[in-house]
Specification:
Blueprint (H helix, E strand, L loop, with lengths): L1 H7 L9 H18 L22 H23 L7 H10 L4 H4 E4 L2 E4 L1 H5 L2 H11 L4 H9 L11 H12 L2 H4 L2
Bound molecules: fe (ii) ion.
């Protein structure tokens, strides 16, 4: 499954550190398996249940957020390197995994996709952070996943987490507000 995941998410190849790249892949693979999905499902599962009949899949959203966060990170790095450095391994891994918990949060029924029992108990930032910790990803990556949504409001976000958080909402609000 890992080779196919690398094809689906070419951004994985941008992660320089072998350990972080392998753990990112392992986390994705685990979520697909635990959620009972196939790899083809990733481009079918909606990225949100908050927009009725959205055409945007979990795969498309995840890649768009990742590419946008990378673009933001590049500008941040160019302009503010006197103040902080962007770690692109953390940023790419965190962006690719920011919604990995949704693969546990949603389930398919005959009448469509709904929140699973797990999703009712643990929104995706919680289940996603748990999966990342399970696979030994660095705290900086777990942090990006944990604080990317409303749960992170009002608390500290690292520069990489700020980029992923805003990229996520840029890839949500215009589709919600059509
Ligand atoms: Fe997202």
């Amino acid at each position: 499954m890992k080779d196919k995941l690398k094809e689906l998410f070419p951004e994985i190849g941008m992660i320089q550190d072998d350990d972080i790249r392998d753990k990112t892949l392992a986390t994705l693979e685990d979520a697909v398996t635990l959620g009972g999905w196939t790899l083809d499902d990733l481009d079918v599962v909606p990225f949100t249940l908050l927009i009725n009949d959205t055409k945007c899949s979990w795969l498309k959203h995840t890649r768009a957020v990742t590419r946008m966060a990378i673009a933001c990170g590049k500008v941040m790095d160019e302009e503010y390197s006197d103040n902080y450095k962007i770690n692109f391994d953390y940023l790419v891994s965190g962006a690719l995994l920011h919604d990995v918990g949704k693969l546990l949060e949603y389930e398919r029924t005959d009448s469509g996709f709904i929140k699973s029992r797990c999703g009712k108990l643990l929104r995706h930032p919680f289940s996603g952070a748990g999966l990342c910790t399970k696979h030994g990803l660095p705290d900086d990556v777990v942090h990006i996943v944990a604080v990317h949504a409303k749960e992170g409001q009002g608390g500290y976000r690292s520069p990489e987490a700020v980029a992923v958080h805003h990229a996520d909402f840029i890839n949500f609000e215009p589709l919600r507000d059509l």
